[in-house]
Amino acid sequence: MSRRDQLGQIFRFALVGGVNTGTFYVIYLLLHPWMPYFAAYSLAFVLAMVGSFFMNTYFTYRTRPTWKKFFLFPLTNVTNFVIQSAGLYALVAWVGMDTRIAPLVAAVVAIPFTFLLSRRILVPGAARAAEPAEAEPRRSASAA
Question: How much is the pTM?
Answer without folding.
Answer: 0.65
